[in-house]
Amino acid sequence: MTRKTYKIAAIGGDGIGVEVVDACLVVLDVLADRDGGFALNVTNFDWSTDRYKRTGEFMPADGADQLRSFDAILFGAVGAPDVPDHLTLWGLRLAICQPLDQYANVRPTRVLPGIQSPLRHVNAGELDWVIVRENSEGEYAGQGGRSHPGLPLEVATDVSIFTRAGIERIMRFAFKLAQSRPRKLLTVVTKSNAQRHGMVLWDQIAAEVAQDFTDVTWDKMLVDAMTVRMTMKPASLDTIVATNLHADILSDLAAALSGSIGVAPTANLNPERDTPSMFEPIHGSAFDITGKGVANPVATFWTAAMMLEHLGETPAAERLMQAVEAVTADPALHTPDLGGNATTRMVTDAVVESLRGRN
Ligand code: ATP
Ligand code: MG
């Protein structure tokens, strides 16, 4: 059997981002070794807020281009308490996602074994959603501006951009994903009662695209009502598609409902595979726990499983998730965000042991 080698760019970033990516690389090494079917050629990049403080740039001007030759990007988190969040977001994350056209942000949510959802009526295995977030335009298009600084007539505008092409491609992606899942259910989220241009176009295009997916059952929800449905009737949902802003908010709620933001993964996909996709935990750099060795690495492990799946290494992805679930099932291996006393190292070692124990 030929041993495939994948080129992986690892960008730990800031705070616990570095800690969880380091832990993840340990696990990936063992997995590749164990599996034998593939190898990973990892290049580490120091792109971060630290680099910005030293050089004035989060990454080199041609950073996104440097990433083009990789098969996938593993990303930690970016941000530091003393640098404004909008600088870090636009300086690194979006500076990668946008040029590489990673327009589909996919965020699975599931209550893993051994983890307690804050929703008392939800058990492990239930609450099985995938949120698809439009990742290239909408409210985060970066359009708008400020004028008359400091004067009473100071104005600031944030202009949302919705294009037919942008909506259609994310809608098609979401319907296809819904179709591939057992329940074939899709909920299209908007705020089309109040936002009467872009959001109405979303509803319209959803209905158009639905014609090509007659086996998918779909419905529409307003984003405010959606938060209620997610908490009160979680089992009624499966695949969800929403705009950049709405899905950003809903997926934080989803992460919390699955037990902790420390277990929630995400993939920034270029579904056509013209450019590499980027895989990261949902959580940020979390400076309150940085350096304490207690960051939960589970989100990043799950993220790595999504990466392997995307690379076509499905058996390895499944093996990794089995190992992760075997570990979450044991409360002695829960980090403090899950109410336990375990460390990043303990969780990582346990996943490695579980992987080694298999076969
Ligand atoms: P950002 O500004 O990028 O969102 P942040 O520092 O605000 O980053 P969040 O990801 O929003 O961090 O997380 C909020 C809090 O949740 C953190 O301050 C931390 O206490 C906790 N947290 C986040 N991720 C983890 C993790 N992997 N393990 C344990 N606790 C976490
Ligand atoms: Mg935060």
UniProtKB/TrEMBL annotation:
NCBIfam families hit by this protein: TTC (TIGR02089)
Name of this chain's protein: D-malate dehydrogenase [decarboxylating]
Keywords assigned by UniProt, alphabetized: Manganese, Metal-binding, NAD, Oxidoreductase
Pathway(s) annotated for this protein in UniProt: Carbohydrate acid metabolism; tartrate degradation; 2-hydroxy-3-oxosuccinate from L-tartrate: step 1/1; Carbohydrate acid metabolism; tartrate degradation; D-glycerate from L-tartrate: step 1/1; Carbohydrate acid metabolism; tartrate degradation; 2-hydroxy-3-oxosuccinate from meso-tartrate: step 1/1
Co-factor requirement: Mg(2+); K(+); Mn(2+)
Function per UniProt: Has multiple catalytic activities. Apart from catalyzing the oxidation of (+)-tartrate to oxaloglycolate, also converts meso-tartrate to D-glycerate and catalyzes the oxidative decarboxylation of D-malate to pyruvate.
Pfam families xref list: Iso_dh (PF00180)
Entry EC no(s): 1.1.1.83, 1.1.1.93, 4.1.1.73
Residues in Isopropylmalate dehydrogenase-like domain copies: 7-351
Reactions catalysed, as given in the entry: (2R,3R)-tartrate + H(+) = (R)-glycerate + CO2; (2R,3R)-tartrate + NAD(+) = 2-hydroxy-3-oxosuccinate + NADH + H(+); tartrate + NAD(+) = 2-hydroxy-3-oxosuccinate + NADH + H(+); (R)-malate + NAD(+) = pyruvate + CO2 + NADH
Family to which the UniProt record says this protein belongs: Belongs to the isocitrate and isopropylmalate dehydrogenases family.
A Gene Ontology molecular function term of the record: NAD binding
InterPro entries on file: ICDH/IPMDH, IsoCit/isopropylmalate_DH_CS, IsoPropMal-DH-like_dom, TTC_DH
